[in-house]
Amino acid sequence: MASPTSDAFDRPAVERLAAALLAGMALLAVLCVALGLGAQVLARGAMAGAWATRFFAWGRDAIVLAPLVSLLGVALRAFRGQRRLAWFALAALVVTLVGMGLAR
Amino acid sequence: MLSLFVIGLAAGGFGALLGIGGGLIIVPALSLLAGLPLRAAVGTSLVCVCAASAASSTVYLRRGRVELPVGIELQFFAVVGAVAAGLGAGLVPATPLYFFFALLLAFTAWQMWPRRGAGWLERRLSRVSGSRVNVARGAAVGAGVVSGMLGVGGGILNTPVLHLVLGLPFQRAVATSAYMIGMTAAAGALVYVARGDVAADLVTAAMLGTLAGAVPAALGGHRISARWLRGVFSLLLVLVAYQMVRRGLADF
Questions:
Q1: What ipTM, to 2 d.p.?
Q2: Which of A15, A65, A104 is nearest residue B68 as measured by Cβ atoms?
Q3: In chain B, what are the domain boundaries?
Q4: Is this model's pTM higher than 0.90 or not?
Q5: Measured between alpha carbons, how far is B223 from B220 in angstroms, rounded to an integer?
Q6: Cβ–Cβ gap B208/A30 under 8 Å
Q7: Which residues of chain A make contact with B189, given a CB cutoff of 8 A?
Q8: Is A60–B182 a contact, with Cβ atoms under 8 angstroms apart?
Q9: CA proximity to B70, closest of A79, A31, A22, A15
Q10: B178 near B51, Cβ under 8 Å?
Q11: Least CB-CB distance to A64: which of B50, B68, B172?
Q12: A102 → closest Cβ in B62, B72, B86
């Protein structure tokens, strides 16, 4: 394990990428919610309700996928200079998804 | 809808300050106050944990407070523990485990309680600094097992492991734990979403509340003293230990 104070790789770049991916997915979720609310307010009838529910579902999915997208981004970025971190990130992602599959 | 937003707001704020998922707050609040069925409450809670993690980790990562390599490596071990626990559920009698983990949590609460000098565990670990990493890996597997068997969030155990075992400053431990819990919660949330337990309309209000609560808490959390936060964290650990004793007695 890298020591808590280790700066052996380009930490700021990886951290910026992880933060940007998380923020991007969170903003996408908020945008979907805003579109869903817009559909509810502007449109009338069952069609508008269906679209609103669809947008809300996309927003929910975006926020649930945010940590996994961030981890995948970290893994791919870390392959350039920090293979150990990259492999751990990929392994954590795979084990998480396998665990999810087993839980289903 | 307003009550869901307020519950999310409170959970997001506490979650970001302590590096926990907030399931301890959200699940009872959603099922008791908002009247959601338990499965829907747990699924909604997991989505909110993802939201709290995404919002607070963005701030913590931008400020360089997350120990990304440490967090990702420990997360790997924690997930392995959680999966093993899921596979081994039913093979090991649960009742003694409830009491064992209750004792473990009570001990951790005692060690986390703010005091002037270093606690017993911190003093012991300072003498074996070389093997701290292995202790942390083992503890992460144990945290994963507890999480998988008993359904408690990873954050309640990640933060003490990072702080007491690896010696990270409390607020760095909180930031790293906040990043780690997102992955754990996402795996669980995907299962609930795929099963159709998380209604999109209901979760939206709680999710927005969580996002709104987590960002200011993450931005201003460093102004709150670490001693106070450690005290609150210790009380939370005692609460979880009490819940485990209750579960153990119910199964007895």
A1: 0.84
A2: A15
A3: 2-251
A4: no
A5: 6
A6: yes
A7: 64
A8: no
A9: A15
A10: no
A11: B50
A12: B86
pLDDT at A72: 92
Q: Can you tell me whether residue A102 is helix, strand or coil? A: helix
- Write out the two tokens for B139: 């503890």
Structure tokens at B44: 């909604």
- Cβ-Cβ contacts under 8 Å between A and B: the total is 162
Q: What is the pLDDT of residues B116-162, one digit of tens each?
A: 666 666 666 666 656 777 888 888 888 777 766 665 657 777 888 88
Q: Which residue of A has its CA nearest to B208?
A: A30
Spell out the alpha helix ranges (H) of chain A.
11-42, 46-78, 83-103
A2/B73 Cβ within 8 A? yes
Interchain CB distance below 8 Å, A100 and B66: no
Mean pLDDT, residues B29-41 taken together: 75
